[in-house]
TrEMBL record:
InterPro entries membership: DUF4199 (IPR025250)
Name this protein carries in UniProt: DUF4199 domain-containing protein
Keywords: Membrane, Transmembrane, Transmembrane helix
UniProt lineage: Bacteria, Pseudomonadati, Bacteroidota, Cytophagia, Cytophagales
Transmembrane segments: 12-31, 37-57, 78-96, 133-156
């Protein structure tokens, strides 16, 4: 069976980076005093996440494919990486919700009702909870990871004119 050590390494790194990001959001007050800004600023995480995905693909190209990687080889690697990140997502969400920022859900529920996004606390609580965030996080990680890979591989792949072995090399 082929191994996916590089994908596993980068999935762990990206998961740890996401936990660090959440901790920084909490320290900045985005889960409490400045929660109104959280919706907008949390999306900035896409920048370092895309950067890490590109680094992972470059690592695969250099250390597994000897600097010669086809679009297909990179896409397969990125899909595997995205699946691993998606599978780790419920754990990172649990750590986030229970250890890093246990007040986030109560705070966002309260504020969303105050602002009129939801009529009742029960309606808001049905949206802002671990289960919803775990599912949304896993699906989002998979979709965004594959989309990022599909785009990044236009730049990371070995350009035509160079010899590329189009078979999938052992990982």
């Amino acid at each position: 069976m082929e191994t996916y050590t590089i994908e596993g390494k980068w999935a762990i790194l990206l998961s740890l980076m996401s936990l660090l990001w959440v901790a920084l959001e909490k320290l900045a007050g985005l889960h409490g005093e400045y929660i109104d800004y959280h919706l907008y600023l949390t999306n900035l995480f896409a920048i370092p996440a895309i950067w890490v995905m590109v680094l992972a693909l470059k690592d695969k190209k250099k250390n597994v494919f000897g600097g010669q990687m086809s679009y297909r080889q990179g896409l397969i690697s990125g899909i595997i990486l995205s699946v691993l990140i998606s599978l780790m997502s419920p754990l990172t969400q649990w750590i986030t919700s229970n250890l890093i920022t246990p007040d986030y859900f109560p705070n966002v529920i309260k504020r969303s009702v105050e602002l009129g996004y939801y009529k009742t606390t029960a309606e808001a609580a049905a949206n802002f909870n671990y289960k919803n965030y775990a599912v949304q996080g896993a699906i989002g990680a998979l979709i965004m990871g594959i989309l990022t890979t599909a785009i990044a591989m236009f730049f990371v792949r070995t350009k035509s004119g160079r010899s590329v072995n189009h078979r999938v090399a052992p990982h």
